[in-house]
Amino acid sequence: MAEIAVGLVIDKLIPLLTEEAYLLRGIHKDVERIKCDLDFLLAFLKDADAKAYTNPNNNISHGVKVWVEKLRKAAFEVEDVIDEYTHLFKQQQSHSYSQRFIAFFRTSACLVIKLTPHHNMASKIKDIRQTIREINQTSASYGFNSTMQEESSSRSQSSRWYDPRKNSCFIKERELVGIESSRDELIKKVVGGSPKRTVISLVGMGGLGKTTLAYQVYVRTQRSFDCHAWIEVSQSYEKVELLQKLAKKLYDSREESIPNGFDAMDEFTLTTKLRDYLQEKNYLVIFDDVWEQTFWGNIQNIFPDDGQKNRRVVFTTRNVEVARFCNESSYAHIHQLQPLLPEKSWELFCRKTFRNELNDGCCPPHLEKLSHEIVERCEGLPLAIVLIAGLLSTTNNTIEEWRKMLTTISSELQSNQHLESITKILLLSYNDLPYYLKPCFLYLGYFPEDYPMRCGRLIRQWIAEGFVKSSKGKALEDIAEDYLKDLVNRNLVQVLEVDFDGKARTCRIHDLLREIVINKMEDLSFCQVLSAKGCSFKGSSRRISIVNGSYEVIKSNTSTDFEVRSIFIFDKGEVLNHRVREIIINFKLLKVLDFENAPNLNHLPKDVGILFHLKYLSVRHTRVSSLPKSIEKLENLETLDLKHTLVLEIPIEIKRFRNLRHLLAYRIDGNERFDYLKGIKVDMGIGQLKALQKLSFINVNVDGFDLFEELCKLTELRKLGINKLRSEDGKRLCDCIQNMNLLESLDISSISEDETIDLESMSCPPQFLRHLHLLGPLKNFDKWIVKLQNLSRIGIYRSKLQIDPLNVLGDLPNLLELRICNDGYDGDKLQFEKESFPKLKLLLLESLVNLRLIVIEEGALCNLEDLHIGGCPQLKQLPSGFQCLRNLKKLQWFELPKILLMSQTFQTFHRAGVDIRLYYPVDGKFWMCRMEQIVAVIEFVRDQISEDEWESKLDELFKILLHLQRLIAKNVRQV
């Protein structure tokens, strides 16, 4: 689809035409006309995409694809010319006025040679404009018009391909697998529950079985209502037609004839008639496959709600926002469908694959291993399991056939008629995305399989690529975060890790969805993934993901180098060091260059300065130790990620990075020494980086200039990490911080264990501060912290506090996470007072050598879910009030006195399902035992050991258990 390419080019032309008119002298009108032509064409691209990809049997499909490909290529050419010429213009601006006047003619002459051998800039623009005009004229011959979009995008789809979801209404009960508990739960909510009008939403990604589940609920509950209806909605619907269909179904359910004239009524009249009809009835209406977020708002007036009768409306939808919309006006319940558990996936697969065998539903032993691997690839998606199993049931039960299916699932999803329904059903969610979200979603495909994607990394790369549209008064990072939330709400992205404040940390996409995304992005020239298996590079791809050393592309495709905009490297080998210079030289228009987690990369070549358009550069988790001087030329850089590298100093040239938003640089050298956290040294001029939002960690004891004077200028900072702070610097640092009104995260580390962090002069801390970490001695626990009403996370390390800090922290209304570690507190007692820490979810108390007693009063820590305790050698007893932690879900304890395992509290937690993990040292390394393992061993020997022997025998039992753990780990590593 060219929609993405054209949209991005238009976004790039707008500032060019408004802010840099001088650049376009002589060709301004041509560029403006190109933009107008592209604006016109963009309106028809959704229709073109639908015709080309959702109607493969359509006679014009091939022509449409050719048309779209030509338009995409033309958009790429426009972008290339703009980027090349912009670079040249910036070079001219760097001269003085008189020098620039002379240099203009010289560099213009160079431009003729540099851009094309035979045409100057004006000629190039005119040629592109002529091409776009021809493409524009061609569009009419294919009949693209906006009135056809809805019809082509949904109705023609349903009539031209097999949709297995329609079979949901005919599945026999004995064929159902894995939905029984959800079905029974929903039946109770539909038939019982509140007499208020209730909207129940079944939410989940495509193929999870929402329609199947809803229909099973429908057929079992419909007789409990005066009238009922099942309505299919889909992506495109006419409201009047939907209301007419609803009226017919409701009347039919009561075996009544629909009154004359319903077919001729307008929307308002139909709404009124239906509301009157339902006024004295209890009803059940299920709307299957709802896409529009405001759907309930459009139809809610049909359904009366007097709170006296059971009235139920059920939605199935892929978008949780559809369900949330109902909360505004009705009692609502959201049921989030989950993938099938592994054992249920296996049961479903066997039933469908081996149903004709004599041993019905049993997998032959010789196919068991391959079958399990095929089921794992489906990741609990019933649609995929059923269709793949159905296809395998028609083949010979040979290892060769099963292995072929396993290794070719990606291509089979595109080419096999039996499996194309999986692709089409999953792609419905992609097609429903607005165009600005489509490139963000496709971006997820460049990561390797099962790779946890850091959300911050994605967001910064989206911004660098130009995918994120600016909005007045809102930071690009916040907008990008909203984009990610939208993809999660649409069930296209799965969140793996979530901070306690609700922000997603890592995410992934379903494996089969990833296969479809890879095919889609390669088809659109969006990105190509090159693995060690050996892929041929398509020269038109704008992005390249190189996995495990597929570097031949660098040498073999230099003819199209200028088209590549982003390169992602996933390689842990040594060969990258010999290729990095080739990458930089051959791909000069890069915006994103990502070497993250390439541990053997040890340098950046001096040629990196030629990447004028580079906006994102990451060498995180590499062995890079310095930055070349030529980096000063990267004046468009927005993100420089040096985390966990060997870089100790940022060159003074960084002050030219006026667009830099994120400077991330630190590493951790163990955690035993006080100075385990290593920041970087910055130079004079850091204050000129007015766009900076994240700066961590920087060393502040720098000679030769006033760093605090520079910091005061960085008023846009959201995250600040300070390292090597001296006691006398405290007041100046406070003055800086109080100017940072947008600051959300603050990390401060003192220069030594003898230097106090003095922040007592902080009278007006940033009101939006959410994260605070202090590493170093604290004279007092500063009272200004109680003013941090938005604080959600605090960490206190090596602070040697004499006064219990809980008195200050306990009343913070939004605190979710508290860490006190490494002698952060020097006292012997911590007391959680009554009703303190009302929202705290994570508590970590570690390496507090003097701590002897923990007291938890009634009502304190009422929402605590995760508790970590360890390295507290004087703590010989369980916390007083420990049993009151009724919401505890996870407990980790290092070196718990073993005799305490026999306490009633521990046994109660274990029976309640709390995940208890205990760690004990063996051979210099901590090994983990789960409570269920310990209980099993204790129960096995209980009758053989007297109570007097327990304490001494427990040591022996643990030695045996930990020895088994080590043997298992060793065997796993060997495998």
Short account of what is shown:
The chain is of the alpha/beta class. The protein has 8 domains: 3-147, no CATH class; 161-336, Rossmann fold; 344-423, no CATH class; 437-518, Winged helix-like DNA-binding domain superfamily/Winged helix DNA-binding domain (Arc Repressor Mutant, subunit A, Orthogonal Bundle); 526-633; 666-783; 792-888; 889-974, no CATH class.
Give a structural overview:
With 975 residues, the chain is an alpha/beta fold. The protein folds into 8 domains: 3-147, no CATH class; 161-336, 3-Layer(aba) Sandwich (Rossmann fold), CATH 3.40.50; 344-423, no CATH class; 437-518, Arc Repressor Mutant, subunit A (Orthogonal Bundle); 526-633; 666-783; 792-888; 889-974, no CATH class. The protein has an 18-stranded mixed sheet, with helices on both faces. The protein has a 5-stranded parallel sheet with strand order 2-3-4-1-5. Strands 6-8-7 form a 3-stranded antiparallel sheet. Strand 11 (566-570), helix 25 (576-586) and strand 12 form a beta-alpha-beta unit. Helix 10 (239-253) runs parallel beside helix 11 and helix 15 (368-378) packs parallel to helix 17. The longest helix is centred in the first third of the chain and has 33 residues, at 61-93. It starts with a helix and ends with a helix.
